Amino acid sequence: MANPAANLATIAPFLKPTLDTVWGTNIKGSLDWEDSGFAVSNTQDAYIDDQERASTGPMQVKIENELAAIDSFATGYSKRYTMVAYAQRVIVSKEAIADAKYEEAVNGAADVAQAAKLTQEYTAAAVWINAYTSGFNGGDGVVLGSASHPLVKGGTYSNMLTTFMSLSETAIETMAINASQMPDSNGWLVNGYDIKKIVVPKALEFRLMRILKSAQQNDTANNAINALKTKNYGMGVNRYFTSSTQYGAVTNAKAGLRFVWREKPSFDDESDEKRKSKTFIGYERFAVGWTNPRGVYLSNT
């Protein structure tokens, strides 16, 4: 296999101080995944487990001189997060470093830092992208967006619209109402769930802004307040979503979308005296996924 190290041939255009601009990949700024509903935590273990517990339901009428009816808690579904290591090396020859007239041309440290951020972005976005994809199942055995999430004590519930609705005031109101009626693990409506944030692809950012932030009701001549503005829903925009129509809501459910760090990104460099080159190394280790599907309410597309 050919040596992948950057050498004089690789950086030939950068050997003379005649360029006006060195351009290419932008340096990644803020991370979209951090605003896409993932709860972030840390661990010192190779894997962690989340375990569902279904509590008891309402009391039943007690007949005089009879024993009270018995109910019990039940163990539900488990979810394991196995920490995955990601790494990348960039090798630059001594000659390339010495002769390059532009630091950007041989900035291997910036390259691996960029790679670490992109790994996080694409891995986290895949959770949303594959929300309806067969085989990408959660701890309860079905995909994230499903009308048939099983309940521990029998029955099912849905965390998505019955039929797809384009992003609109009506769609968000419907999602909010439906989320408030989702049952707890015991199969009973306890508190319901409240929407905290709407997450959309870049293509829907401005539509969402008008829906949530307009003073009056959006896209209508009615002289009515924008009820959604009073809810103060957050906005999350993820440019890594591959669909321009898929969107969803993040709720206040415990243990929904999770991003678990084992080792945050670290960077190093080392010199290879035998080959007279320098190696830039980046490393990170994490797991991403979801535990409780009630953590999101989805648009069904």
Short summary:
With 301 residues, the chain is α+β, with helices and mostly antiparallel strands. Helices cover 16% and strands 28% of the residues.
Write the layout of secondary structure elements.
Elements: E1 39-42, E2 47-54, E3 74-82, E4 84-93, H1 94-99, H2 108-129, E5 149-150, E6 156-157, H3 169-179, E7 195-201, H4 205-213, E8 234-238, E9 248-251, E10 257-272, E11 277-290, E12 296-298
Parallel strand pairs: 1-10, 7-8
Antiparallel strand pairs: 2-3, 4-11, 5-6, 7-9, 9-12, 10-11
List the main descriptive attributes of the protein structure presented here.
301 residues; alpha+beta; phage-related protein like fold; four-stranded mixed beta sheet; 16% helix; 28% strand
Overview of this structure, please?
This protein has 301 residues and is of the alpha+beta class. It has a single domain (35-51, 81-298), classed as phage-related protein like fold (Alpha-Beta Complex), CATH 3.90.1690. Helix content is 16%, strand content 28%. It is built from 4 helices and 12 strands; from the N terminus they run ββββααββαβαβββββ. Strands 1-10-11-4 form a 4-stranded mixed sheet. A 4-stranded mixed sheet has the order 8-7-9-12, covered by helices on one side. Strands 2-3 form a two-stranded antiparallel ribbon. α4 (205-213) links the parallel β7 (195-201) and β8 (234-238). The chain is flat, with a radius of gyration of 25 Å. The model is unreliable at 18-24 (pLDDT under 50).
